[in-house]
């Protein structure tokens, strides 16, 4: 669990006003003096995330944020960063200073949580310095002191119980699509974009997901696919890097289902059906149409970059139009989508499901269609109907 990527951890964020004891609480929860703790308001300037294991629940990503209500010179910028964290928060802890509790600030935070369907726990801090007890007024809340290990233990137990209710259903790429004992061929091209000495996260995750569900995997490069198919009886599914869709489609018999790692990842992390519908907007693009390319990671780009080079070139070729592309990476995502005709998102392997779900919802609210890399590449290769068929069973 220690090596579980942040994208596959449950994200818990501590919110609250400045100097409410958020950083001290953060340190106590993870059991390390990780954050600087000070009586000076605004000590925490940027959100900081630390991975830890909340046993027996599992891997968690805990984030400490700059305080709300910051009236310092750069307070507005700090609070803007804090608010952006909401989009990837699965569960919120609201730290309220029991020596100077601000009910209005708490109500405002609750409204923000409710807008994004984020469950939360109200935690009154600095119980050692206050005689006030708000727990009767706010049922379900906790009162803690960083100097009282028993109160911190009670907080961890409450957090454990709350998180255990979050995701009753398993997040899976392949579970429910194929029965145990099935055989899958994974096609992984090795080109200049492939990381040296390893394979990329969606491929690793898919392989592990198959093993978890008792599904046999045969892994090959696109250059060995023809021989692989000859050596083994017809597999139950072929999954390829979406950039090789057109080539792989020609080799795999039509009776064998074919899809991509990107579409598998989208099935697990977002609304794949909506992403597939979003591809319909490609036909309506015209000269000057603006397209937002959203990639959830940061990496050096090259002449073979899928998001910045290959897909823009493909769409210009398929539509015959002069299109305008804007590029956003990692957690950057524009607050105003009104000028865009289409959003094309990567598979989302480097962000958590909550982030992906919120981005899709944000596009819905703005009336802007959204699709993803794998869907667009299948569309461009003329095989989207085939690539989506495995998900319609």
TrEMBL record:
GO molecular function, one term: GTP binding
GO terms under biological process: tRNA methylation; tRNA wobble uridine modification
Organism: Candidatus Avimonoglobus intestinipullorum
Ranges where the Hydrogen maturase F tetramerization domain occurs: 274-388
Residue ranges occupied by any Hydrogen maturase F dimerization domain in the UniProt entry: 174-270
Highest classification ranks of the organism: Bacteria, Bacillati, Bacillota, Clostridia, Eubacteriales
Name of the molecule in the record: [FeFe] hydrogenase H-cluster maturation GTPase HydF
SUPFAM superfamilies according to UniProt: P-loop containing nucleoside triphosphate hydrolases
Xref: CDD domains: Era_like
GO CC terms in record: cytoplasm
A Pfam short name: HydF_dimer
């Amino acid at each position: 669990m220690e090596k579980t990527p942040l994208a596959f951890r449950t994200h818990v964020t501590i919110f609250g006003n400045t100097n409410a004891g958020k950083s001290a609480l953060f340190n106590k929860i993870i059991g390390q003096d990780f954050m600087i703790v000070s009586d000076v308001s605004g000590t925490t300037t940027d959100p900081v995330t630390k991975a830890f294991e909340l046993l027996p629940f599992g891997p968690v990503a805990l984030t400490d944020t700059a305080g709300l209500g910051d009236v310092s010179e750069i307070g507005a910028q700090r609070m803007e960063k804090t608010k952006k964290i909401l989009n990837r928060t699965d569960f919120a802890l609201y730290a309220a200073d029991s020596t100077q509790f601000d009910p209005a600030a708490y109500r405002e935070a609750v409204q923000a949580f409710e807008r994004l369907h984020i469950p939360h726990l109200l935690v009154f801090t600095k119980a050692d310095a206050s005689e006030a007890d708000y727990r009767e007024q706010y049922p379900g809340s906790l009162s803690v002191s960083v100097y009282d290990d028993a109160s911190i233990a009670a907080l961890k137990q409450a957090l454990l119980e709350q998180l255990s209710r979050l995701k009753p259903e398993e997040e899976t790429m392949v579970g429910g699509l194929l029965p145990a004992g099935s055989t899958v061929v994974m096609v992984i091209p090795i080109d200049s974009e492939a990381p040296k000495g390893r394979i990329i996260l969606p491929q690793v995750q898919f392989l592990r997901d198959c093993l978890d569900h008792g599904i046999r995997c045969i892994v090959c490069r696109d250059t060995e696919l023809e021989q692989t198919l000859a050596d083994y009886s017809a597999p139950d599914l072929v999954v390829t890097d979406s950039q090789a869709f057109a080539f792989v489609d020609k080799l795999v018999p039509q009776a064998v289902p074919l899809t991509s790692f990107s579409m598998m990842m989208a099935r697990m992390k977002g609304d794949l059906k909506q992403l597939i519908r979003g591809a319909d907007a490609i036909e309506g693009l015209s000269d000057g149409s603006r397209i937002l390319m959203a990639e959830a990671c940061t990496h050096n780009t090259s002449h073979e970059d899928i998001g910045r080079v290959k897909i823009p070139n493909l769409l210009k070729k398929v539509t015959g139009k002069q299109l305008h592309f804007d590029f956003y990476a990692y957690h950057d995502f524009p607050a105003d989508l009104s000028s865009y005709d289409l959003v094309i998102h990567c598979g989302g392997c480097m962000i958590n499901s909550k982030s992906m779900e919120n981005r899709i919802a944000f596009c819905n609210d703005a009336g802007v269609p959204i699709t993803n890399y794998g869907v667009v590449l299948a569309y461009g290769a003329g095989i989207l109907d085939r690539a989506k068929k495995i998900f319609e069973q």
